From TrEMBL, chain B:
Entry-linked Pfam families: Peptidase_M16, Peptidase_M16_C
InterPro entries listed in its UniProt record: Metalloenz_LuxS/M16, MPP/UQCRC_Complex, Pept_M16_N, Peptidase_M16_C
Organism: Streptomyces fructofermentans
Protein name: Peptidase M16
Residue ranges of domain Peptidase M16 C-terminal in the record: 191-374
């Protein structure tokens, strides 16, 4: 097994280090030691997400993720859940546009079990996959869709806005949950083909973080994963590149039974992994993060036209990122009042840029968010995989905070000026209707708009 | 149909030797102003968590002003004698801090999280908020309007609507617990800054408050810091407020809250039972986990993994309010959502699971796995400062000793299958459960009636 380099702690990494290794079958392995608590996190990212899905099979990557918990060569039925939970561990899997991840956090002395389980399904899932689990998990996922999207007010906003923001045929035009029709249409053979295409050691990164002995851990990884054959049959995802700006405003008005009017919008922003994306993150934080942001102060505190107002960033590496605006109106306030105020604030910000104090606040907020993410072994394991899969270098996870702190006010202003414009956004307006006018479908809080679907 | 795998298989590995871990023991002390302080050093936890508990329970809210504790809690972060509302929010965020505050039956809680490097400044702001809140007329008025705007959003959310209805059903109309925690349109409208100030004057003082500080405190002189911040808060002495007993009507019945067109039915099936003061608690935790704690528990094994009726159904016990004399209570409930056409069959299966549990009991294997999970996950669950601080604060709020959580793990490990079965069966008796269904009455009423699980009434949606 060729050994990677041992990193020494870089400036701004908070003293964290990680080492990199690669098995002969192509599986990349990242290890990071931390003996403060007797726990170890295992995280496995497969480089496949909903962007790899084809027309007529939306939701397949996520449905498949559920099937990964239905047993494999040596694991019966729900054994993955039973064995990990019975060992005092926790586990789950999630699917996003760009990747599918599986993770276990274990008491240190049970780490080997988690590695054995992940290897078993990577190497032998198809020995257990059958019609019964396919039919059952299809129903479970359809109920997940109903619970999280179809049965709650504003529940389908994320899906609608994404479809507006990325053109028809674009790999990010549809969200990971997929459509009911496509979930119905997926076959066992689709699932088998999906596994054979994407679930290979050379299409994955495994990270193990926490109270570990790196040599022993690597020996276990080699023992359990080493014999799984790699293969190169994976087609590249369709190209997600788009012009820097939308070149015009896209708009949809939704008349539904919702409790209040809402203005939501998605702005096209720079790809993740760039300085401009970090600058955009800071711009959105100054404008709409927390309760001292410009939009919160204007709409909620001063004008009192909104019950909630905020901006979020959906970071994407394979297509432009999205700046996510969500405003729910107060009382009888009409949407144009909100929209005018938002446009004024964005124009003023592009003109003035952030103040020194605003920069300090936004950087402090993002720094804390990073400390939170890196404060648990599971969070660190996930970030190491993220940077390894999306950007080819896990070490970048440990210096991400410093990169955000290095961004200047000029860079923030520049990205705001170029991107946070009315002609670079997709807009979704909600107009409430009375129950008897409503279709059979109601749709709630899109403020937690998520790009992830989990197995439980 | 099966496919030959090409990998080399190895037997399932055995566990190594467990490394010792114990729930941390906090240090306890009292400042000169009477404030109780719990502290706990957690190496490596750079984000410090501070929890403050105020003895301002919901049953202390004046008649007709339900929601005033919530408005007060929110108003703490809307300005002080040193900062305007906007400046206060800005100063907090400049520390990279978050401050949440909410009111519940036992009292008001404030939760601060901040990187340890900026703890001194953030703790100063928190102390200002408690010591000298501005409660300006216009800010309180804004919070009231904002709260009124939130109510329709909650009513439209099936899970929140179900919770509201269950409280209304279970508790006597005269009890504060029967009414929404954050008030109704009518009561919230009646709240103004003078009323908030009066509530604060009556119920907020250091002598009846507790602060919990958890994180990597190796470079912090906490005594000096507390002295300059929370130590500067003054207030009169006060007697501990008596805690009224909790009474509930759990006569088995079904209430459908009509939500025409809903594609799923939100289930909330509950009653009131023992809290942590009762000796049965560890067995109840274990039995409830076996019934519906996770995807491999009895309920999901049938409703999700066999039938596919749901994304997941959970059984849980959640303390409502405890009392020093042990007369408190917990909500014991089963919740989840099932697709509309399968509402009848899903409830039928759910009741079958409960009846089978009562008739046949749990197995030793189920009990063992549950103990291994509940005890084994402790080091994972308490990795962050916030998780430790939250549990320490819960213990104080529930009049439990500081070593309660540590002891609970020993008790769980010592609880047998028979005790866990008995506790689960008496926690969820099939004829003493109030079932709230938020869903399309036109489609679910008849199938639910046919089950015979209690009298069915339909409530029209607001």
């Amino acid at each position: 097994m060729p050994m990677g380099h041992t990193a020494t702690a870089e400036a701004g990494s908070g003293g964290l280090t990680a080492t990199e290794h690669r098995l002969a079958n192509g599986l990349r392995v990242v290890l990071s030691e931390d003996h403060l608590t007797p726990v170890a996190a295992v995280c496995l990212w497969y480089d496949v997400g909903s962007r790899h899905e084809v027309k007529g099979r939306t939701g397949l990557a996520h449905l498949f993720e559920h099937l990964m918990f239905q047993g494999s060569g040596q694991v019966k039925g729900n054994g993955h859940f039973e064995l990990v939970q019975g060992a005092g561990g926790s586990l789950n899997g999630t699917t996003s546009f760009e990747r599918t991840n599986y993770f276990e956090t274990m008491p240190t002395h049970q780490l080997e079990l988690a590695l054995w389980l992940e290897a078993d399904r990577m190497g032998s899932l198809l020995a257990a996959l059958d019609d019964e689990s396919m039919e059952n998990q299809r129903d479970v996922v359809k109920n997940e869709r109903r619970q999280r999207y179809d049965n709650v007010p504003y529940g389908t906003a994320f899906e609608k806005l994404t479809a507006l923001a990325y053109p028809e045929g674009h790999p990010y035009h549809h969200t990971p949950i997929g459509s009911m029709a496509d979930l119905d249409a997926a076959t066992l053979e689709d699932a088998r083909a999906f596994f054979r295409t994407y679930y290979a050691p050379n299409n994955a990164v495994l990270s193990v973080v926490g109270d570990i002995d790196p040599e022993q851990t690597l020996a276990w990884v080699e023992k359990y994963f080493g014999s799984i054959a790699g293969h190169d049959g994976k087609p590249a995802p369709r190209d997600g590149a788009l012009p820097e700006t939308m070149g015009g405003q896209l708009r949809e008005v939704v008349e539904e039974e919702v409790p209040a009017r809402a203005l939501m919008a998605a702005y096209r922003l720079p790809e993740d992994g760039t300085r401009a994306c970090d600058a955009a993150d800071l711009a959105l934080t100054v404008l709409g993060g927390g309760e001292s942001s410009r939009l919160y102060n204007r709409l909620v505190r001063r004008d009192r036209t909104a019950v909630a107002a905020g901006f979020g960033l959906l970071r994407l590496a394979g297509a432009p990122s999205l700046g996510w605006l969500d405003v729910k109106t107060s009382g009888d306030v009409e949407v144009p009042v909100i929209e005018t105020a938002v446009d004024e604030e964005l124009a003023r910000f592009a003109e003035e840029g952030p103040t020194a104090e605003e920069m300090e606040r936004a950087q402090a907020q993002l720094e804390r968010e990073w400390l939170d993410r890196l404060g648990t072994v599971a969070g660190r394991a996930d970030e190491l995989c993220r940077y390894a899969v999306l950007f080819g270098d896990p070490q970048l996870a440990l210096t991400a905070v410093q990169r955000v702190l290095d961004i200047t006010a000029e860079e923030v202003q520049e990205v705001a000026k170029a991107r946070l414009r009315p002609d670079n956004r997709a807009v979704l307006v909600y107009e409430p209707i009375a129950p008897d006018e409503a279709d059979t479908e109601a749709a709630t809080d899109a403020t937690d708009a998520t790009d992830e679907e989990a197995a439980k | 149909m099966t496919e030959l795998a090409t990998m080399e298989f190895h037997p399932q590995p055995q566990a190594g030797e467990a490394r010792p871990w114990a729930f941390p023991e906090p240090g306890r002390g009292t400042l000169d102003n009477g404030l109780t302080v719990l502290r706990c050093h957690r190496p490596g936890q750079q984000v410090v968590a501070v929890e403050v508990l105020l003895a301002a329970p919901l049953d202390a809210e004046p008649q007709g002003l339900d929601g005033i504790a919530t408005i007060m809690a929110r108003a703490f972060s809307e300005g002080t004698d040193k900062h305007s509302a906007e400046d206060f929010a800005a100063e907090l965020e400049r520390c990279g801090a978050t401050l949440d505050a909410y009111a519940d039956h036992p009292g008001v809680r404030l939760s601060l999280e901040v990187p340890v490097s900026r703890l001194p400044k953030a703790l100063g702001l928190l102390a200002d908020a408690l010591r000298a809140p501005a409660f300006e007329d216009s800010e309180v008025e804004r919070l009231v309007r904002n709260r009124l705007d939130e109510i329709p959003h909650e009513t439209a959310n099936p899970a929140r609507r179900a919770a509201k209805e269950l409280s209304r059903q279970l508790f006597p109309a005269s009890a504060r617990m029967s009414r929404p925690r954050q008030g109704t349109e009518k009561t919230v409208s009646a709240i103004d800054s003078a009323a908030v100030r009066a509530f604060y004057d009556s119920h907020v003082r250091p002598a009846t408050a507790t602060a919990v500080v958890v994180g990597d405190l190796s470079d912090v002189d906490l005594d000096a810091l507390l002295g300059e911040t929370l130590g500067a808060w003054t207030g009169s002495q006060a007697q501990a407020r008596p805690v009224p007993p909790v009474t509930a009507d759990d006569t088995g019945r079904v209430v459908i809250v009509d939500r025409p067109g809903a594609v799923q039915t939100q289930l909330l099936i509950g009653r009131v039972g023992a809290d942590r003061h009762d000796r049965v608690w560890p067995a109840q935790v274990l039995g409830t986990y076996c019934l519906g704690g996770t995807l491999t528990s009895r309920l999901d094994r049938v409703l999700r993994e066999e039938k596919g009726y749901t994304y997941g159904v959970r059984a849980f016990g959640q303390v409502l309010r405890s009392a020093p004399d042990g007369t408190g209570a917990a909500m014991l409930a089963i919740s989840g959502s099932v697709d509309t056409p399968n509402t009848g069959p899903a409830l039928d299966d759910l009741w079958k699971v409960l009846r089978t549990l009562a008739a046949e009991g749990l197995t030793d294997a189920e009990r063992d796995v549950a103990v291994q999970n509940l005890v084994g996950v402790a080091p994972l669950k308490f990795e962050t400062a916030a998780a430790v601080a939250g549990t320490l604060a819960d213990q104080v709020e529930q009049y439990l000793p500081d070593d309660y959580q540590a002891t609970l793990y020993q008790q769980l490990a010592a609880t047998g299958t028979v005790e866990a079965t008995a506790a689960a069966v008496s926690a969820f008796p099939v004829d003493r459960l109030v079932t709230v269904l938020v869903g399309d009455a036109a489609q679910i009423e008849e199938p639910v009636r046919a089950l015979g699980i209690g009298e069915v009434t339909v409530v029209t949606a607001e």
